[in-house]
Amino acid sequence: MRLIFPITFLCVIVLAMCESNESVEAVEEEVSATSTPSSDPYTVRLLTFEYEFESHTELSERDGKNVGNKKMNVKAKYGFDILHHDPAGHILTRYRLLECLTGWCDYDIPDLYVDVIQGGNNLQGVYVGEDKPATWNILLAAATSIVTPALSGEGDVQTAVTPYGICVSKFGRPADKRFTRHTYDCNIRGERNHSLIPLTTQSYEQKVEYLQNTKVDADIVEVTSVETLKLAADIHAKWSMEAKTTTKLTMLNRTQLILEPYCQDQESGAECVKRRFKAKLLGTNWADILKNLDTIRPQHAEPTFTTSVRKYREHLFPMGDSHTCEKHSSMFGGLVQSAAHATLQELETVIKDPENDIVLPALADVLAATGTNVAHKVAKTTLAAESPELLEKYVVALAQTTRITDWLLEDLQKWLESDTLTADLRPAVAFTLASLLKRHCSTSASYENACDTGKDEAVNKFVAHVTQCEEADEPCILSALITLRNVGTAVVLPFAEKFICTKSNVSANGNIVAEAVRLVATVSPKHYEAELISNLLRVFRNTCPLEVDSTAQSAAAEALLFAVNTHQSVATYLLRSLEQTPSKSNYELLAYFYALVDELRATDESFKDKWTHLRSFKVFRNNYNQRAIPAFSTVFRGNMAKLPKLQSSFGVKVQFVKNLFKRSLFDLTMTTGKRKTNSLLTLALNTNGLESLVGVKDASDLPSVPNDDKPYVDPSAGMQLAFFGSAQKPVSFFEGQGELMSAVWGASGQSIKAYEGNAVLRQYKGTIPLLSGLSLSLDLLGRIISF
To answer: What is the DSSP letter of 505?
Structure first.
């Protein structure tokens, strides 16, 4: 497996500026105003303020050798008017540009109307004129500094929707007429924010301080805000980028006017702004507001999909379809970027072009990585018609798509349930959909909780469909257990528990019990109930109503050891269940168990502390009689590379049963700065019934002929690949002695290509609004090829 990770980084300051106009004049009111009180009952008091807006933005990029800086300043004056107090306790305010003094603000910026809750200044809605195009500007930036995105009455610390994504918003206690608001721990939004492995980190932090007037109505006379956006790459420790903006709003003038009311007494602010000012709603939260703003794209033209494919084909053709180089990686990334903006007609034309036949396998990966609705439709129709054998390749590659939408999940579910889906393609669709659902659930803590508690409709539909098996349909049950391992949420536990230590006839199938236990091991141990733990212990001890084989016992040992950190009693149960004088039939199981313990002690500090503490008690002291046994089963893990914030390692697990190879697992993992381990590649080899192929000394232990106690099992072997935690459908080497002999005699000695494909490792594309009124356009792409 070759990893290539060139980071292509494009950072463009998008200047929200149209053609320069003359300085914006003060708004002329249609009603007469006077600065002296009036006895007229149809007049009200209007407070209008004049503020100075001054900001400084500095953008710096470091690559270990050079530091590149760019500085931008914006200075302007704007008016802030309090227009209406409605019966619901809302305040309708208006922001209007008075004068642009310095920087990119000298253009037609429409008036901004903001509806807030009195007291907390909580955002309720943002409005602009119906005929006015709106982009991110200094008025929106000023409103962001003043208005809080938190919900009214929900506490000082909340998870709120901000212009930068879902963030923690903390409002500080007042001190000497000073208030603070801290925004941090943001899940930064973007048009695309995809990462198979968290090799890059993005962080945003904002601190705002408000100073009130101590003499007149507690007006806010000064607002100072500092925001910092940081980007870094764990794989390139010396590279980083930082954008820092300091903005200061200073009150220059405060005027009280007596005039006719803009709004009716019982009219809400939302109704008034639409009737009186003919304004349209941009949104009630910052996510909706940004969606409805006109986005100004960077002034560089991206190549069309047709052009990108032609360049890729011309590079590939003279070198043969098996040639790969670093240039392939960059080109594949360009194909994905251009395909994301391609039309349906352009995609279909490229796929149908006979000259592109040589690159169709790569284009299948491109369509999958793009993840748009258009690309998915083209793959299911045009690609399937032009090259039907590539449809499965597309489906498999779709598990690593850069964009997961509700529409895509729903379409795959309908496809899986349809009668038109072929039997050969159905497993691939099921495994891919399971992988996408797992990624969907891990998007945020709320999504994860919904999936675990059975409140996610997409996950519930998939699990219900996959588990529709007859009680005695062992192939269907086995397939469902293997497929659900890709989901990895607590909602799969009830299905797995049906086959763990029960009296069901299906539980007599050792493969089903082992797969059920492995399915349990994919779920976080915090969801394990006492009954499930008890049944896993009984499997490990082989004390269930029906006998279980060593494979299921080993799987139970893994699941229980992984639960030690969460359930402290599990370690004591395991140690108490070990035989003082092991029987010969348990040699391989004990060797595998202690090898697992050694691996966990070497890689998990918390496990090491708990296990060492337990071993200090006399009753749990090491019994070297259990360790000094002849066996082949083992577990090993070694380091491949270590960086300051990154570490990669490989592991090997090998299981034998009575001197015969049973199962092995090879995996590559990467641990990031937050100590989160991510799977890169997993290769599992499984065998069954090999005892029928060899002569044995003890026929009662290893029967080569059928008998009632230990039924004869046909020999079989197979493998299963997983990339980035997404397992593919199992591949069978042989089933029965006939296929085995055919495979042996037909073997050519050549290696078998298990899988070849391309995927986008990291992609971020989006526009981040800054408190200076400018926008930061980011285009980050990391790629791997040929895995």
So the answer is: G
